[in-house]
Amino acid sequence: MTSVMRFLSSVVNILCIPLHLSHAVGLYGIYKRIFPFCINRMSKSYNKKMHDKKKDLFRALPEFKRAGGQLTILEIGCGTGANFEFYPPGSKLICTDPNPHFEKYLTETMAKNDHLRYEKFVVASGEDLRAVEDDSIDVVVCTLVLCSVDDVSQTLREAHRILRPGGAFFFLEHVAGDTSTWTYFFQHVLQPLWYYFGDGCSIVRETWKYVEEAGFSDLKLRHIVAPLFFIIKPHILGYAVK
């Protein structure tokens, strides 16, 4: 089975040669400009299907308010702001994303969620949050982002660094399926193609292992089967306390 999987993956990789070439000559930058438009449409569908899961996850956010009742949330890879509706009223929000073309859609989402206090939008990758001070954030949120960052461990180190002691890292990510399943098989076959259309997204990443090794003091992590397209059904969600 493994040899067949590798062979089919190689075939798909060959079929992706035009995409490789477009990336090499700089045409991939055009896709990065229209990617936010695609994500804006897909996020609405994802939120509809995952509404209950997200609601359950973010229900714990108020537990991490400071003594005065203030809650400062920093979202890594905020995209179009698909999580904003789930944040507690009055929360102060710092948005980060490496793609500046998301800002237009982000502004529209902010206008629809005036229960939040928006501090700023920072164009930055999860691996490099140097603009944020150590021990300054109550909650870091990261959803559907660890699948596409270049360095998962560094992203988690940055999240840990900027969290105050007792703060929490909330996550929701699609991950690699169980090795004995057809989901795992097709994830590996389709990964070369998915990488390009998902702007660097990996559907074969065992993200839970990185979270477990990130040095948090307390971890609440669950594996779930999401009501989504079969190759992205495997998900993890939860939060980790610094």
Automatic annotation (TrEMBL):
The keyword Signal appears for this protein: yes
Molecular-function annotations in GO: S-adenosylmethionine-dependent methyltransferase activity
Domain of life: Eukaryota
Keyword Ribonucleoprotein (UniProt): no
Methyltransferase type domain sequence ranges: 74-171
InterPro entries: Methyltransf_11, SAM-dependent_MTases_sf, Thiol_S-MT
Leader sequence residues: 1-24
Key words, A-Z: Signal
Name of the protein this chain belongs to: Thiol methyltransferase 1A
